[in-house]
Specification:
The protein is mostly beta strands and 431 residues long. Helices cover 0% and strands 48% of the residues. It is flat and about 80 Å long. InterPro entries: BTN3A2-like_Ig-C (IPR053896), Ig-like_dom (IPR007110), Ig-like_dom_sf (IPR036179), Ig-like_fold (IPR013783), Ig_sub (IPR003599), Ig_sub2 (IPR003598), Ig_V-set (IPR013106), IgSF_BTN/MOG (IPR050504).
C-alpha cells in the first residue's frame, strides 16, 4: 500500500461497531522543541505493520514493537476515547519527530485512516548584543543567538521599528539540527543609536529581541549597558534575577550601579565604590534585594529580588556611572501567580439538582474560570465571584448545578491567560 512510503507511522487500533470516518486536521500541527505535542484525530497500520509510534488494542496500550525513539514519550488521551476522539500526546518533542503521521482505526470489518503533518519549531535564546571593535568609521555591534529551528529571520531595527541594514550575517546548523546566527551592524556618529536585534521564528510567528543604546561618545573604552529585550517573567512568592551587564565586558567594582523604577530617586538597590548603600532604598524592597557581586569584575551587575509580589510588576532601570561616562538599560518585569489546584466540593441540593463548588486562590493577574465536560465542552456556571487579597493575589469561587439529565463528568479549570498556565480538577457525580 502507499502508506509504506512514509517513514513515521502512528498506530492506534480501536474497535467500533459501525462504519466510520477518520478525521484529522487539514493544517500541519506545530510543536515547540522540548515541549509536548498533541496529534488530534477524531475517531485514529494495521496488524501487519511491525513498527509504530503508538498502538492501542483491546482496551490497552501495546508497547511491543514500538519504535525505540518514541518509547516512554507517547500517551493516548483515553479520557475522550468513548467520544470517538483519540488524540496522541508526544512528550519532549525532538527535531526528529517532524514529518508525516498516519492515524489508523480498525474494527472487525472496516478500517480507515488519515494523514497529518507535525512541524517542529525551536525558539532560541534571547539575542546577546556586544560592542566589539572599530570598523568603517564607526562601532561594530554584534548580535548572537542559538537554538532556532527552522532557520530564523534576523534583523536590526531602531526603536521606531524601522529596519537597519546589517554589514554581515552568518547562520550555521549544529549537530542537533538547530540554527545559530550572528549578525553585525556599524553604528556611526550620525546614525540612530537606539537599536535592537530581533530574531523571529516565522513558523511560530514569535520573536525574541534585545535592545541597546550607543552613547554619542561611544568608543571601545566606553561601555554600554545591556539588558534583555523581552519581559522577565517571575512567579509570585519566588525569587527572580534581573539580568544586566556592561558591553564590552569590564569591571564595575569602582562604579556606581543604581537600580531604580519610576524615577532616579525611586531606588530599588544601589551599589557605589564597593559598598551597597540602601539608605535611599524604597521601603517595599528593604530586605528583599541582593546585588550579585561575584562577577562584577566582568561587568555583570544583575539584581536578585526575593519573594516576588504583584506590586513588583513594571519597568526597572539598570544604571551605571563612572567618573567619565554613564549608561542605562530598561527592563520589564511581569509577575504571574499560578494558584492552588481547584478544590471541588458538593454543596447540597439547589434548583432541582446538586450544587458543586470550585475554589482556588493565589492567582495573578485575575484568572479565567470555566466548567467543562470531559469532552471539552464548556458548561455554564451558576455563580462566580473573584476577590483580591492583601497580597495582591486573586481568589476565585464558582459553582455549577448538576441535574439528573446533565453531564455528570465535569471539571473545573482555572487559567492564567497572560502566561497560558492552567490548573484543572475533575469530579464525577454518580446517578
Amino acid at each position: 500500500r502507499w502508506m509504506s512510503a512514509f517513514l513515521v507511522v502512528v498506530v492506534v487500533l480501536v474497535h467500533f461497531p459501525a462504519k466510520f470516518t477518520v478525521i484529522g486536521p487539514r493544517d500541519p500541527v506545530t510543536a515547540v522543541l522540548g515541549q509536548e505535542a498533541v496529534l488530534p484525530c477524531h475517531l485514529w497500520f494495521r496488524a501487519e505493520f511491525a513498527s509504530f509510534v503508538h498502538l492501542y488494542h483491546d482496551g490497552k496500550d501495546q508497547y511491543d514493537g514500538q519504535m525505540p525513539e518514541y518509547q516512554g514519550r507517547t500517551e493516548l488521551l483515553e479520557a475522550v476515547l468513548t467520544d470517538g476522539n483519540v488524540p496522541l500526546r508526544i512528550l519532549n518533542v525532538r527535531r526528529s519527530d517532524e514529518g508525516l503521521y498516519i492515524c489508523f482505526v480498525q474494527d472487525d470489518t472496516f478500517y480507515e485512516e488519515t494523514v497529518l503533518e507535525l512541524r517542529v519549531a525551536g525558539l532560541g535564546s534571547a539575542p546577546l548584543i556586544s560592542v566589539e571593535s572599530h570598523q568603517d568609521g564607526g562601532i561594530r555591534v554584534v548580535c548572537r543567538s542559538a537554538g532556532w529551528y527552522p532557520e530564523p529571520e534576523v534583523l536590526w531595527r531602531d526603536l521606531s521599528g524601522r529596519h537597519l541594514p546589517s554589514v554581515s550575517e552568518t547562520k550555521s546548523q549544529g549537530d542537533n539540527g538547530l540554527f545559530e546566527t550572528e549578525t553585525a551592524l556599524i553604528v556611526k556618529k550620525h546614525s540612530n543609536r537606539n537599536l535592537s536585534c530581533c530574531i523571529r521564528n516565522t513558523f511560530l510567528n514569535q520573536e525574541k529581541e534585545s535592545a541597546v543604546y550607543i552613547s554619542l561618545n561611544t568608543s571601545l573604552a566606553l561601555p554600554v549597558m545591556i539588558g534583555p529585550g523581552h519581559p522577565i517573567i517571575a512567579t509570585a512568592g519566588e525569587d527572580i534575577v534581573l539580568p544586566c551587564h556592561l558591553s564590552p565586558r569590564m569591571s564595575a567594582e569602582n562604579m556606581e550601579v543604581r537600580w531604580f523604577r519610576y524615577q532616579f530617586s525611586s531606588v530599588v538597590h544601589m551599589y557605589q565604590h564597593g559598598k551597597e548603600l540602601n539608605v535611599l532604598q524604597m521601603s517595599e524592597y528593604q530586605g528583599r534585594t541582593e546585588f550579585l557581586r561575584d562577577s562584577i569584575g566582568d561587568g555583570n551587575v544583575s539584581l536578585r529580588i526575593h519573594n516576588i509580589r504583584p506590586s513588583d510588576e513594571g519597568q526597572y532601570v539598570c544604571f551605571f556611572q563612572s567618573s567619565s561616562f554613564y549608561g542605562e538599560a530598561v527592563l520589564e518585569l511581569k509577575v504571574a501567580g499560578l494558584g492552588s489546584n481547584p478544590l471541588m466540593t458538593v454543596d447540597g441540593y439547589q434548583e432541582g439538582g446538586i450544587r458543586v463548588m470550585c475554589q482556588s486562590s493565589g492567582w495573578y493577574p485575575e484568572p479565567e474560570v470555566l466548567w467543562r465536560s470531559l469532552s471539552g465542552q464548556h458548561l455554564p456556571s451558576f455563580s462566580e465571584s473573584k476577590s483580591r487579597g492583601e497580597s495582591g493575589l486573586f481568589e476565585t469561587q464558582t459553582s455549577i448545578i448538576i441535574t439528573e439529565n446533565s453531564n455528570q463528568n465535569i471539571s473545573c479549570l482555572i487559567r492564567n491567560t497572560h502566561f497560558n498556565h492552567e490548573k484543572e480538577s475533575t469530579i464525577f457525580i454518580s446517578g
